């Protein structure tokens, strides 16, 4: 499947698993702009046409400007959010992103439609001069030790490790995509009934500045990145574990 990370290739991928483990899903653009930060929140709010009724100022925006400038990459971090029941839009001086409310993944069809709507609005507004990074990130939570259910092992002197807590991170290239996979079996995740302890399988796929354009082809790149996250997830989990997730096919 992936040249540098040879997970198995499935003949077909499920379009849904139940219960859905997706805790986070985020689609982000980083860009250069001639607009000042004082202008952007009002400009973007006008584009949303009441679709995201709640606007929230985040802690980073409340810091003095001198302090913010000391934080590496602060222009690419969200300073405010626009929220609806299912989604939120993160906005910073040089970034904008669509993400789900924690644990409220609506399915790819609905998310794809919302992303197309948002991209149409911000591209038409013309406040982005050049793209810096395009990224898609999915975080999946499981109440079990994920290392017991994936086709990946960590060994020492030829013997599988017996550690209680483990984290694994790798970054590899697949064509123009940079892919970061992070696994951890001792994390605490929020839930309506209270914090839960378990495992996180986190995939981040990105394109660099030279590998996408701020035009009507941008959605193709988001779809490619989304497909890569899906292929990596289902190529990594074992067949036996996949059966317990009640896969549904189109």
Task: Describe what this molecule looks like in 3D.
- With about 250 residues, the chain is of the alpha+beta class.
- The chain has a nine-stranded antiparallel β-sheet. It has a two-stranded antiparallel sheet with strand order 7-8.
- The two termini are about 20 Å apart.
- The protein has one domain.
- The protein is globular and about 55 Å long.
- Helix content is about 25%, strand content about 35%.
- The model has no long low-confidence stretch (mean pLDDT about 95).
Helix percent band:
10-25%
Sheet with most strands: 9 strands, antiparallel
Oligomer: single chain
Biggest sheet strand order reads: 2-3-4-5-1-6-11-10-9
Mean pLDDT equals: 94
Q: How many helices does DSSP assign?
A: 6
* Percent range for β-strand residues: 25-35%
The gyration radius over C-alpha positions equals 19 Å
Helix and strand pattern: EHEHHEEEHEEEEEEHH
Detail the topology: elements first, then pairings:
Blueprint: E1 22-32, H1 40-48, E2 54-57, H2 59-62, H3 65-69, E3 80-83, E4 87-92, E5 95-100, H4 108-125, E6 130-142, E7 155-156, E8 159-160, E9 167-174, E10 177-189, E11 196-208, H5 218-236, H6 239-244
Antiparallel strand pairs: 1-5, 1-6, 2-3, 3-4, 4-5, 6-11, 7-8, 9-10, 10-11
Provide a short characterization of the protein structure.
This protein has 6 helices and 11 strands. With 250 residues, the protein is α+β, with helices and mostly antiparallel strands.
Question: What labels would you give this structure?
Answer:
single chain; 250 residues; alpha+beta; 9-stranded antiparallel sheet; two-stranded antiparallel sheet; 6 helices; 11 strands; 33% strand; globular
């Amino acid at each position: 499947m992936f040249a540098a990370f040879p997970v198995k290739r499935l003949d077909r991928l499920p379009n849904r698993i139940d219960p859905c483990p997706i805790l986070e899903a985020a689609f982000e653009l980083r860009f250069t702009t001639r607009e000042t930060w004082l202008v952007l929140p009002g400009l973007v709010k006008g584009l949303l046409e009441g679709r995201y009724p709640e606007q929230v100022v985040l802690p980073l925006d409340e810091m003095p400007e001198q302090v913010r400038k000391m934080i590496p990459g602060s222009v690419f971090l969200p300073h405010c959010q626009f929220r609806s029941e299912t989604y939120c839009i993160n906005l910073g001086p040089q970034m904008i992103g669509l993400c789900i409310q924690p644990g409220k993944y609506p399915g790819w069809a609905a998310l794809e439609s919302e992303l197309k709507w948002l991209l149409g609005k911000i591209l038409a507004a013309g406040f982005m001069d050049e793209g810096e990074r395009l990224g898609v990130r999915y975080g999946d939570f499981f109440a079990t030790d994920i290392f017991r259910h994936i086709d990946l092992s960590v060994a020492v002197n030829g013997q599988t490790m017996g550690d209680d807590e483990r984290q694994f991170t790798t970054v590899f290239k697949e064509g123009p995509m940079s892919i970061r996979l992070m696994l951890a079996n001792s994390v605490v995740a929020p839930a309506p009934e209270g914090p839960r302890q378990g495992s996180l399988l986190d995939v981040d796929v990105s394109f660099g500045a030279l590998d996408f354009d701020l035009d009507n082809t941008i959605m193709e790149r988001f779809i490619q990145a989304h497909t890569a996250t899906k292929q990596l997830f289902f190529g990594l989990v074992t067949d036996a574990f996949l059966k317990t997730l009640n896969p549904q096919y189109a």
